[in-house]
Amino acid sequence: MHKIKLLHLISRLDIGGAERQLLSLVAHLDKEKYDIYVGYFQGKGELEREFQDAGIKIKKFKFIGLWDISFWWRLYQDMKANRYDIVHTHGFKADLCGAIIGRLTGVHKIISTVHNQEQYLKDPIIRFLEKWIISPIDDTIIVVSEGVERFLIKTTGIPEGKIKKVYYGVNPDDIKIDKYKDIRGEFNIDKDGILIGCIGRLVEQKGHRYLIQAVGKVIEKIPQAKFLIIGKGKLEKNLKRLAQKLSLNSNIIFTGFRTDIYSILDKLDLIVMPSLWEGLGLVLLEAMALGKPIVATDVGGIPEVVENKKTGILVPAKDPNALAEAISNLLEDYSVAARMGETGKASVKERFSPVKMVKEIELIYNKGV
Fold it and tell me: Distance between CA atoms of 8 and 58, rounded to whole angstroms?
């Protein structure tokens, strides 16, 4: 049987939601049916080994910038020599290169996934390229939520008929946890401390400063509350300065970059996502798969994951008072928090399974083949 030759193209293979979801997708695709390659051209390749362990062939293309003609030539040579049946791209740079080179080399099907409410689409030049070059070439544009779909149509005017929604898929069995990891010991948190975690890059999108502003109000009611801010990013120094200014250093711990996110997640009592915009929120699905209650902002695709007052509490973005109140209410009522966690666990199994995700994407791959 002829295998379908499939190239996924993404700018980075570093730890992030889109990258980890791509790993989940290619790991669950049928290797008897698909000959799968993943190409990338920026970053450190932090997830490269995990892709290889899943049986995926990796290609790294040398890249200086989009104006680098030699990069375009190398990508052209690779696509022409390998004669891929499908090229599936993720992120603007990969979308642009994959669409143009894919069309020039006769790739049968070109697909892109938009993983977030990408703010760069507000840039008129990028919006022009997306609307008049990338989307006309793409056979299908996959979005990860209705929130992303609405944003994409509003900002670019891409026709609704070209867009397909496919939710992320999370398998609880794929979440590897070190049960013996002593997170409390590492951060000097006593057994009575309540652990609240916020996982994500330290960038404007994730809204950390509003959470930091909320922490003081939470510890007035629950002084044993400890907040772990897990991740790295360009706002790290500013956020640490804010925590110090508000005299919250004993209640907020910046963990920096971690490779053991799941083991930390397992030890948390509550997950907070104070994002200003969000495609879907993979961390939320992973938290729900582990039965964790959630406080998150009512933005983007988050309400499609977190059902307000059923699997968590949704609050307006940029509202520290609402964040503090929701966090305090859940921490003060363990039975409600536990019930939300269990309901969330069931929701992930029913609505966000990798099997469902792969089946829907394969329908897109197979259309017209």
Answer: 10
